[in-house]
Amino acid sequence: MRGLTRAGKRASEMAFNAGGGTINWFPGHMAAASRAIRDRLKLADLVIEVRDARIPLSSANEDLQPVLAAKRRILALNKKDLANPNIMNMWVDHFQSCKQDCISLNAHSSNSINQLLGLVELKLREAILKEPTLLVMVVGVPNVGKSALINSIHRIANSRFPVNDKIKRATVGPLPGVTQDIAGYKIASQPSIYVLDTPGVLVPSIPDMETGLKLALTGAVKDSVVGEERIAKYLLSLLNIRKTPLHWGRLLRRREEFDGEPDDSCEKGSSGSLRRRRRFNNSDALYVQDLVIEVQRTLCSTAMEFTGNLDEDNELESLIDSQLVALRKVFRISHKPLDESHGPASKKLLTLFRSGKLGPFILDDLPDHTTH
């Protein structure tokens, strides 16, 4: 993922973003929500801050970092199945080198959740003698998997303590004898450790266009705020600047050669980018697999056939437009005369990316002092 910060910055500054305006998040009521989060954080003995593994820095709320850093905290980099595993390990090492407990996980994996809960209990050992009841709070920006994580914790909590109801009231806070209405799932006893069942939603920090587009691409900012076509063009900018389609082409050729069917559809000058050697399989899983191959082959062939200079932004935008036109055919989107919009193709491309079908990615770059 080297150079992605530079690629991301260039992609965010291209002309297709110029008319879109700045990327804002939710309206003013989130300011009140932020204040409420600060109040709830005071109750927590430990905070699990969930971030998207594809954007370990961009999915943080910068305003609350001093508050979070002052508490016992575990960074949970969720959706690790969508992130490049080699680079993911380097990110975990980076955070741990900064004296920050960090774990990469998949919120739908029991093994991941058990590892997280083991770390939670380890971190809370030092508080065992001080409090009869310890509370754990899950926080994070939208769409990083907070609810999925809490639901998985609930299932494990039920298996550990099947006869216990959810906690309703507990002695919490700095003043002895003060009780507050809370709801949470018990994950340990002696002392009792509960995970609050309602996550804290943090407002994404969007200091610049690049961060906003990364958040939009991973789904933390609603598509309607930014526009699907704008997000898809940002994705294609990143892919082309990093020459990912050409990498896909090499992988496809190796696969075809291994299967005994040499693939020349990504060779320069080839007109076979949309050629299918077989009909899409009726099985949904195989249909999606075939569709992904066609998307990768199409993006590769259009990049190979392009004769412009990709170092020039206007020429890169020309390539992106031609790729979106070509993807209409792959996605079987009927093209109406005079209709220049790429909305339907953009939507389908983003769905493939966000589900990990196009491969694992990490959009943030490691800080310079950790790179080699």
Automatic annotation (TrEMBL):
Broad class of where this protein is predominantly found: mitochondrion
One record GO biological process: mitochondrial translation
Keyword hit for Transit peptide: yes
Protein name as annotated: CP-type G domain-containing protein
Keywords for this protein: GTP-binding, Hydrolase, Mitochondrion, Nucleotide-binding, Transit peptide
Residue ranges constituting the CP-type G domain according to the UniProt record: 34-204
Keyword GTP-binding: yes
Location of the protein in the cell: Mitochondrion
